Amino acid sequence: MASFETSRLLSKRDLDFVLYEWLNVESLLSRPRFADLDRATLDGVLDTAARIAADHFAPHNRKADMSEPTFEDGRVKMIPEVAAALDVFRDAGFFSGAQDYALGGLQLPNVVERAAFAWFQAANIATTAYPFLTLGAANLLKAHGTTAQIDAFVRPMLEGRFFGTMCLSEPQAGSSLGDIRTRAAPQDDGSYRLYGTKMWISGGDHDLSETIVHMVLARVDGAPEGVRGISLFVVPKHLLDDKGDPDARNDVVLAGLNHKMGYRGTTNTLLNFGEGAYRPGDRAGAVGWLVGEANQGLAAMFHMMNEARIGVGLSAAALGVTGYLHALDYARHRPQGRPASAKSPETPQAPIIAHADVRRMLLAQKAYAEGALALNLYCARLTDDEATAADPEARADARLLLDMLTPIAKSWPSQWCLEANSLAIQVLGGSGYTRDYPVEQFYRDNRLNPIHEGTHGVQGLDLLGRKVVMQEGAGLRRLQRLIDMTAQAAADGEFHLLGRALGRANARLGQAAALAWKAGDPDRALANASAYLEAAGHVVIAWTWLEMGLACGDKVGDFYEGKRQAARYFFRWELPKVDLLFDLVERGDDAAFAMRDAWF
Amino acid sequence: MASFETSRLLSKRDLDFVLYEWLNVESLLSRPRFADLDRATLDGVLDTAARIAADHFAPHNRKADMSEPTFEDGRVKMIPEVAAALDVFRDAGFFSGAQDYALGGLQLPNVVERAAFAWFQAANIATTAYPFLTLGAANLLKAHGTTAQIDAFVRPMLEGRFFGTMCLSEPQAGSSLGDIRTRAAPQDDGSYRLYGTKMWISGGDHDLSETIVHMVLARVDGAPEGVRGISLFVVPKHLLDDKGDPDARNDVVLAGLNHKMGYRGTTNTLLNFGEGAYRPGDRAGAVGWLVGEANQGLAAMFHMMNEARIGVGLSAAALGVTGYLHALDYARHRPQGRPASAKSPETPQAPIIAHADVRRMLLAQKAYAEGALALNLYCARLTDDEATAADPEARADARLLLDMLTPIAKSWPSQWCLEANSLAIQVLGGSGYTRDYPVEQFYRDNRLNPIHEGTHGVQGLDLLGRKVVMQEGAGLRRLQRLIDMTAQAAADGEFHLLGRALGRANARLGQAAALAWKAGDPDRALANASAYLEAAGHVVIAWTWLEMGLACGDKVGDFYEGKRQAARYFFRWELPKVDLLFDLVERGDDAAFAMRDAWF
Q: What is the ipTM, given to two decimal places?
């Protein structure tokens, strides 16, 4: 099956470089949690992921796109290959790889689990979404649930028997969670009954698992308005019997499927809670249990959302990389035209990679996709430090940086790896626009990533409205200090110009935030938050590229030359864009702010 | 049918502004060719186009996307609404509106015909492609064909009885036309027999018309290699009987359909010429007739390609405008969240247009889409000057400008109105990603425009490699002089800062071209041609916006305030990007040029 070679999913060489030559993942192995692991085990996990991704996930990626799940007689029907692939995934232990031994896991570093996930995401983003959501829900419940909840729900999720979802949005409240209306009525036995409608729920229904564990935001009757009255509940699709196996249906009903432009293999659902379909009369109401404290649900849910945001960024990066590798392969083998200096029709046509403009499009994809992948693996590495660094200060430092980087790690790959996929189409030309090649699907699939788990607009508000001001600016200062250290480390070598440019851009990262907030008016300060987010993302990716450039050291060979050239490309073609964006933020440009509804 | 209101296709108010308040189309009516027309007639034509577009083209836009044409028993099957819509289009006279009285036309100005087409393109780009290609083929044959060819083919095309295509690409030669292999064998009766395979032929087969007239590039046996050996032929799907009606099938066979990401309602075909299917044995060969001189085919075909390129730009703009209008409507009616300064959950949610970032996305769409539409109508206006200006110098001047602007008018809307459609999706959020709303289709449809009729790469080579150097730079100088006149006209008014910025950018437009060519090495000069194209496009659109800003004069009212604000937006958020691009071109940045295949 030539089209499902691992070499067109991700670059194993690049992944090794990021994990071992830059992020020094082997150094983690000296920590107690990872004492049983060695490099060969990590490599084995990643190689297994690559092989299963190529053999079981990639082959049905197009078929799932062409035959999206349907809603028949109240149930979801989908192609059988999805369940078959997830069986292999489950049997190989990928649901629990990073979990504690006590929960049946292997205690892999998170960064290795994430890298393994990237193989599956590159092969089939839609099928991978089911375990992705399940792990997010399991980790959330593990962090905030009771021992009984963990035993009842988390263990079967980590065995891949139960799948999970996150139920936040409602038809009248997408990004504005303070306006959700789903209500939870307390019962005498300590449980709750939930009533309401949840929208855009990925993986909200299917027959892939024994049951589905919904993590649901709702308001306990009498709770305060707004975000301060939101609680988190666990609501299974089926109630469990005495043995913990799924039994009668809970009152959660699939009301419809959304039909999307891409990501079609993942069911995206409208769910009704408590309409009485499965529990009529006075038994109506979806049975659920409070997770954590009442009215503290949003804070708990952010645990899952932050993990999901980095995961979204990683999936966008994986799609960017696979699109790039497909375009590269095409460009090397497709003859078309000749260089401007050798136009004689007597000569054979050259492969299109001979054209500088094609190399530009490939280099841009490489810079976007490998940069995004590296940043998201860096963030995954921070989650390992947060959990396992010996020093409590180092753990807090990792948390601070992760908070700071999350909106960027989510939004930047979603924006620029979508652009990478567009360039992959462009390299293939008319062929790229057809469904005979996979790049158009990557582009359609990737277009969701700037929307779900918080749009660019939401991430911009998070970065400029919360993260740069949190702890009186400590997160921003920490990030800036790290970036400056990298810039200084480059001062005397081949990348000294890049170091200087990064230092300048980094200074503006702080200055622009300060000037945006100078007047203290949040509406004005945040009016250009998206511009700030985009600029900050470019600074952070430039930093990532300079880090990778420095990690090449004095090593020789094509691979390292390519890394160095991609770093140069990003600094020459991309980083200079930040000045324009910082200009707009710093002077509080009011073009959009002053625009009136009636003027449109 | 609320979803097919004309107000969500194009803005009639904006179209009137461009045609009458900026381009002064009424002044054309004093020319002899247009003596029978008046403003009311032009308005009637445009209103009729808007009504037919909304009533007959828009309603099946989604259905045609969901039910793309199929290839069954050697024939194309498609939904019946396409033929029904084209019947109405034909009966209303839109095939011949701009043609000579002698050919059954109304002698409308081209700019009005193009504006009418924009209504159809906004409503249904795929169905509109059939008459679009037919008119292109008819105009080509009219310009280069014999009287007999015009009578036989052009007249029925302008009656909408025969449709047309352009057959350039072949499987082994997409953008590289010098490598086409289709051969034409001369016959004793003066006709030719053609043998070969043509790829990516839009409208290449269907049952929408009595027959199809293919305009085909091929090599007469013994012709020189490369572009100097290409001739143009007219090859009908059916041979014509003595009365000129389609009779026996010619030897042109539909070999397959391409399955695309968007633009699905337009058949896109692989055609085999001369394989003997319909004319077996020694009758094999597609019967065709030479158009114009042998070996001069490419120059003739450029007549059609240039027209098609401006048409592609216009269609991209029309999709940009309709996406913008849909997003605007959604933003005004969708409540979600509250401004940062008024977060109390007690207050009702605000329509999302209240958020500055949503207004930014709408303003960007307005700036891209209305700017692109205006530029393409300006180009259409130039075609009227080229054909009907009293003064021969004015005609030549219009030709020169049109040559200069064509690569920009094709590529800029294709790039930025695709971005506008992406922003339209973003405004709608999760809804925008579903097929319940049309914006995702606009985005998919529009993604073809950067590819067909010459990719961005091809347009960049055309602009920097041919147009800026043609006639020793006369075209570039002429364009720069016009832009400077606009900049100077703004010097003393409210837009003086915009005028200064445009003047500076315009200076770099010339300087960058000169520096790129300074060393005289075409490979190096053209290595960054795409960057030059993108920068030149931004300069030209900034010029267009300043022209529109000045055309507002001292008029008051919401519409004019919106135009002024969009002009300001483009100058603050977009025009500054050109400096980075010109920097790269001027210093001959070699990031992509020096990148080696093995380094990827």
A: 0.97
